[in-house]
C-alpha cells in the first residue's frame, strides 16, 4: 500500500501563508470600519443640516437646532454655519488612526426657499 506523504515543508508553508494573511485581513477590516464610520458621520451631518434648515424656516435658532440633532459624541466634532437661508455642517468622523479624521471630514448643507411671489 502506497502512502502519499506531503513533503514536510508544505505544512510549514501553509502555516506561514495563513499567518501572512492575518494582517491583511485585519487591515481590510479596519478600512471597512473606517468607511462605515465616515458614512455614518455623513448621514448625521445630512440630518443635522436639515434640522437646522427646518428651524430656520420656523424662525427658531438654526445653529442650536442643528447641534441638538446630533448625538453627544458628534457635537464636539461638528462645525455649523448659518448663512442667509442655508445651514452648512462640517463633521469629523471617528477615526481609527489619529490625524485621519480631518482629511475624512464630511460636509452637508440644507437651504430654505423663500415664499414664491
Quick summary:
With 117 residues, the chain is an alpha+beta fold. It has one domain (11-111). Helix content is 52%, strand content 15%.
Task: Give structural notes.
The structure is a single chain. Helix 1 packs antiparallel against helix 2. This protein is an alpha+beta fold and 117 residues long. Helices cover 52% and strands 15% of the residues. The model has no long low-confidence stretch (mean pLDDT 89). The protein has one domain. It has three helices and three strands. Strands 1-2-3 form a three-stranded antiparallel sheet, covered by helices on one side.
What structural class should be given to the helix and strand makeup? alpha+beta
Give me the strand/helix succession. Answer: HHHEEE
Range of strand content: 15-25%
Overall geometric form:
rod-shaped
Which range best describes the helical content: under 10%, 10-25%, 25-40%, 40-55%, 55-70% or over 70%?
40-55%
Calculate the mean pLDDT score and round it: 89
Strand tally is 3
